[in-house]
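ARCHIVE RECORD
Type: protein–small molecule complex
Small molecule: 6-O-phosphono-beta-D-fructofuranose
Source of inputs: curated submission
Record status: active
Notes field left blank by submitter.
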Amino acid sequence: MVGLPARGKSFISQKIVRYLSWLSIKSKCFNVGSYRRQGAPRPSAGFFDASNKEAYRIREQAVAQAVEDMMNWFSDEEGVVAILDATNSTKERRKWILRLCRENSIEPMFLESWCDDKDLVLRNIADVKTSSPDYKGIDPDVATADFLERIANYEQVYQPLDTTDDRDLTFVRMINIAQQVIINKVETYLESRIVFYVMNLHIKPRYIWLSRHGESIYNIEKKIGGDSSLSERGLKYAKKLPELVRESAGDRDLTVWTSTLIRTQETAQHLPYKQLQWKALDELDAGECDGMTYEEIEEKFPEDFKARDEDKYEYRYRGGESYRDVVIRLEPIIMELERQENILIITHQAVLRCIYAYFMNVPQEESPWMSIPLHTLIRLEPRAYATHVTKIKADIPAVSTYKGKGTSRVGESESDNDKSLHVLSSLNSK
Ligand code: ATP
Ligand code: F6P
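STRUCTURE (tokenized, with ligand):
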């Protein structure tokens, strides 16, 4: 990363890591600020003055340690994408990084966030900096003044990337979020994927609502897949949904995304918003097992049943899909979600788990086992370093379709697992 303080470098880094990890690309962020805090826990602005020799030594030590750990991570843990999250504000520093990367056969790409919108910088400071560990116990106004001085110190030495001097470097320059993006020598597939992703990011406040369809006839019959209609109780949920959404969204305008299956469209039928159907939101395809109960699957395909319990993320139904397959087909949905503002998605158990896993950074071993009960509206609020979750229960009874590990019966242990949603939400902060 390259950029002055409070330009969203950590924000962008964390998002890239979350996105790539969700796509099973091993990624990690090395935040130099946390290394620096070991030597200088709560420095004032003067610490960032380039002429402060002792401070400079501590800062160089911090970046050297971060880079060493990063190189070890590449070699010992077979990491694929590391992000060195620091200001990396001088040509000299970037030259040093470039050299180390080349020596270690690492392909570097520089991503600069440039922003001259003073109001936005002030908002960023209020949003995340005054509450950072650097200013623990300090009055927010004093912290803001000090942080502005810190930025001024960086500005003394800051050298932006430029298309003349740096024309041999692979770099992306994002100007005022993504108002203008300069792309230089981006050559590999992975680099271009990252560039495309960051170009789609925005920071406007917004919500994303997620809901499974209402209880379906197949849910009652304990059958998976299919294209059945809603049960009586499912229809009640559909009727109540506009009120639940209004209570949570107020008079915001939003767009509803459903799958192409009858049960999600019946669930959306009373919602007074624009609606869009996505094939990519259809439920995980159970192939030959479509329309069967888990008990029937265990009886007819005992080895498959066991294999799925052992590795639910990777297991692909005969003639159908795995969770990994679903994640891959959901990628355009995630990209579009990043671009959009207020969206309500009505989809299915497995698909919703995958979308939730992206926003909440849930690891692959856990995401297929998360409990997402019927008749519950989930509201996600993406914030700078975390996504806040609110669950709104409709108070309309429904069967549980949750199947725990090692059993073919549904409904057992759902209440225990239900808690995981809350636990995960509180863990997902910087
Ligand atoms: P520091 O160098 O002090 O670590 P930083 O550049 O890493 O600062 P962040 O901590 O990521 O800055 O700042 C987060 C804030 O930046 C959030 O409020 C977020 O909304 C905002 N933000 C995200 N992307 C951008 C961007 N491209 N330009 C400006 N601000 C952004
Ligand atoms: O039971 C409802 C359902 O949406 C099925 O159609 C689907 O096969 C299943 O949930 C996915 O959940 P799991 O991956 O836990 O079997």
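CURATOR ANNOTATION: The CA atoms of residues 280 and 330 lie 6 Å apart.
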